[in-house]
Specification:
153 residues, six-stranded antiparallel beta sheet, single chain, alpha+beta
Length: 153
């Protein structure tokens, strides 16, 4: 009795019961149908990969845009816990508020302050209205405490 593969449900012969020399050999089912299933699975996989790459590129562009904008601003550190400045304000040349960042600690953390996320608020040209908000999860190296990753949420 013929079988199907586990994941793609491809038709395959059972060596014990199927005889290639008899009429049980079905070319259409063995080859064409199987190839169609493989091709469809490949197409779906390529679509998934393309969507992931596109999302990754969008997130990276967003991160690059924020870093570029923040690089050329005056900034003022406002609050510190442990070795981290938890609040920083960025100002334009005209001294209006451009952005405000805050670090947040996980409520389950130990006595040592270790930030778990960062939120950045971008302000309109008047410096008083928030026009955009971005949040990151912060990942630190457990051995030396260095920041190793910022995940855009």
């Amino acid at each position: 009795m013929s079988e199907e593969t586990k994941h793609l449900k491809l038709f395959k012969y059972d060596k014990e019961t199927d005889d290639f020399n008899t009429t049980t050999f079905n070319i259409k089912k063995c080859l064409n149908d199987n190839w169609d299933k493989i091709d469809l699975q490949s197409e779906n996989t390529h679509k998934d990969i393309s969507e992931i790459k596109l999302k990754d590129e969008e997130q990276q562009q967003s991160i690059d845009k924020m870093i570029e904008r923040l690089t050329f601003m005056s900034c003022k550190r406002e609050s510190k816990q442990g070795k981290y400045y938890t609040q920083i304000r960025w100002y334009r040349k005209d001294k209006t508020l451009y952005a405000y960042s805050t670090l947040y600690q996980d409520s389950t953390s130990t006595n040592e302050y270790i930030p778990k996320s960062m939120e950045i608020f971008f302000y309109s040209n008047n410096g008083s209205t928030i026009k955009e908000r971005t949040k990151f999860d912060l990942i630190f190296n457990s051995e030396d405490g260095d920041l190793i990753e910022m995940r855009l949420l």
